[in-house]
Each structure stands twice: as C-alpha cells, then as structure tokens.
User: Fold this.
Amino acid sequence: MNLLYIAEIVGKSGILCVKKLLPGIKRKYGIDFVVANANGATGGNGLGKNHSGYLHKLGCNVLTGGNYIFSKKDLVDSLSSMPFVLRPQNFLPESPGNGYKIFKTPAGNVAVISLLGRSGFSNVHSGNPFLELERILPRIKETSKIVIVDFCGATTAEKRAFSTFADGKVSAVFGSGARVQTADGEIMPGGTASITDGGRTGIVNSVQGLNPVMKLAEFLSGVPRWNCEINDLDNVLQELQGVFVKINDCGKAEHLEPLKISLEMKEE
Assistant:
C-alpha cells in the first residue's frame, strides 16, 4: 500500500494546498490511501463540519484531529454521521464520534487510530494513550494488518517514546501537534515508520501557520488571539507537508519519505 499522510492542515491556506497539490501527488506516488490531520483546518484551531466534508471530497480518506477536535460545535453535533473524521481514541468513552476506524480499500484493509498525548496539554483530559493502544490493538489486528497511528502531542519526548513503544506493533506512527516537521523520519527496527512531527500544511513563513504579529502579541500579553489567520495569500510561501510511506502486505513499512511540496509545483 502506498500511503500519504498530510501534516496538520492550517486554515484556508492549508485547504488550498490540499486542493491544488493532492491530485498531482496522488498520481506521482500512486497513492492508495490518504490520512490528513485537520486539527487546525478551520481558522487555525479546530475543524468545522463544512471543511471536513470538503476535505473528504478533495480526496482525504480520513481526517484526524487532536486537542482542538471538539472546538467547533457544528462538527461535534455531526460526528455520528461523519465516520471519516476521528477524534482521539483515548478520550472518555462518552465522547461523541470514534477514535479509530478500519477502511476497506482495493489495496487491502487499513486501520487508522487517533491518539492524544498527555504531556504539555492543560486544556484537555485524556486517558493513557500507551495503554489504550494495547487495549484496542488485538481487536484491530483481527481484520487489518496495516495500522496507522496519528499521535497528537505537545512534547517531542512523549511522541518519540510512543513511537518506540509502538515499534513492531503498528505500520506507522505520525506525530502531530507541533506544526513543525522534524528531521527524524525513519523506519524503526520492528518495521514501523515513524516521524516525531509531520509538520503543517499551509503558510511556511508564519508561526504555526498563523499570523506572526498576532501570535507574538499573544505570547507577550498572555491573552489568546482567536482569529490569527493570514488572509492575504498572494505573497506568502505555502506548502503541503507530510510523509509518503510504502507498506507491505505484512503491515511493515518498507519506505518512508518526508514531503515538503510548494504550492507552485506544477501538476504532472
């Protein structure tokens, strides 16, 4: 299976990058399945119902979230009718939506799990992601050898620890949450593809894909700025970031390639 992971989509720029670049990437790499993190797709914080449906139509087979997944009420109210959107599996069982799903594709079944780290987050409360993976994995492995995990975390230490813990148990662990692509993409000894953070899809010359002036004011004052999108996209560098992974029939990763593709790329 040729799998594409699109790193966190941030705002209208991120959605534009997916719209313009995804068709060419799918052709170039022969992509069978697309996992996209959309934790910041709507205004930079959260995912709205309309944007989730639009990204799905653009070719994202499954959308994962993270600490902002419940930020938009219209999505929360619609999660039961949107099985392609995942909230963290280690949220309370009473939480709306699902934390993992097994998808049938021509290349075989693929299971996608969303998990949230516990280090560094003060605004959300979740169960232990390590133990939750151990709990659900035997059931998932009964029907899918290919298992993908999106691990949203605030610290590199926890994300790296989770990849080490999951090595040999799942096909790939894609870290998210920092919105900065790390340089440690690798296939681990047990055959698990891993990267501490896949980066972000959207504006490059920014702070986490958002307006640097407004984000700086937030850090200086301590007062949150909720509308920090950069609206003028004419003179900014925009990229689709993520990871391409090739997975064999046994569920082991054979090839990993981090991606940074500029919006100026011509579709082939």
The helical segments are 11-29, 49-58, 73-76, 129-141, 156-166, 212-221. The domain at 2-262 is CATH 3.60.21.10 (Purple Acid Phosphatase; chain A, domain 2). DSSP finds six helices and 14 strands in the chain. The mean pLDDT is 93.
